[in-house]
Amino acid sequence: MNKSYGLLLITVGWILVFGCRPAEEQAFQFADQGREVPQFNADRAYQYIVDQLEMGPRNPGSQGHLDTRDFLMERLEEYAGESSVFMQAFEHEGYDGEPISMYNLIASFNLQSSDRILLAAHWDTRPRAENDPDRPGDPIPGADDGGSGVAVLLELARIMQENPPPVGVDIIFFDGEDYGESGDLQNYFLGARYWSANPPVPGYQPRFGILLDMVGGENALFPQESYSIRYAPSLVDAVWDVAGEIGYEELFPKEEGALIADDHMIVNRQAGIPMINIIHHRRGDDGNAQFPPYWHTHSDDIDIIDRQTLQAVGELLTEIVFNRIEIQEPAL
Ligand SMILES: [Zn+2]
Question: Residue 175 sits in which domain range?
């Protein structure tokens, strides 16, 4: 549908040749490669949250959703180049029986590299606020739940425009993560489900994926989420080790959190890509996840965003992308 198709075809070529990695868990290690790491700027990430909030709630089917789609495509095209950006549109039957248009937004950096990683966040926001006694049926602003992960990845995209990464990096903004009513898991993770079942690049097999969800809130804590441990234990350890090495061991405690169904669960199960989730939560006394008090309420607004949380997560990803991946050139 656009110029990126040619590049996708090139990409298919190397994946067919080099993409046959074993499905079983690989042993990940992220030793310091001694490379220079560009600065992550939390003020810019913060501004990307403000930009998203200005468009109103971004729940599928709303005007804010369409406006934000266009805004994100513009930013990605600016940072990755028009031919390296792809919009995957699909439809989902809503609770009222009418189809809703949804869009996964994908940008690729260093397309020449066959050695790739996947970074993702959901860009939709929740169409209801079931945890809020006030207007529970209205959509939430989603500053942290949706907005923060997108903002961190946009700032990383801007950095990668100026500093081409040593490894291939694909950023995906999934749609429809948070559409479902509580407990109705079939209506969650819609973009991740569609993308996994309809990969734009058949056979796409990056080394690993990292999902960001609620990575900008105050009083944040990122224990190791349990599906991440189940599907990619050594990747979890390697990422948390890096977090400790760059000074964020308190924010990233090396202890098990709780089981949280999210887009990464779908990508692990359906696409066979080892993917972990960095998500603000605590493990409750009953073993279940406890989310911050603003979760799925109208208080998930700019006031609960903490630049230091954005900085920590952004620095961690920047460090991994630029300095922690040993580059393996394919043997031709
Ligand atoms: Zn949510």
Answer: 4-19+27-323
CA of 182 to the centre of ligand 1 (A): 10
331 inside domain: no
At 102, is the secondary structure helix, strand, or coil? strand
> In the chain, how many domains are there?
1
Distance 128 CA to ligand 1 centre (A): 10
Q: Is the predicted pLDDT of residue 24 greater than 80, yes or no?
A: no
| CA dihedral for 293, 296, 297, 299, sign (positive or negative) | positive
CA 295 – ligand 1 centroid, Å:
7
Q: Is pLDDT at 95 greater than 90 in this prediction?
A: yes
Confidence of residue 213 (pLDDT cuts 50, 70, 90): very high
Q: Whole-angstrom Cα distance, residue 275 to residue 264?
A: 6
- pLDDT value, residue 2: 45
Q: Confirm whether 60 is domain-assigned.
A: yes
For ligand 1, the distance from its centroid to the CA atom of residue 145, given in whole angstroms, is 5
| Distances, alpha carbon 171 to alpha carbons 16, 72, 150, 153, 174, in Å | 21, 12, 10, 7, 10
CATH classification at residue 72: 3.40.630.10
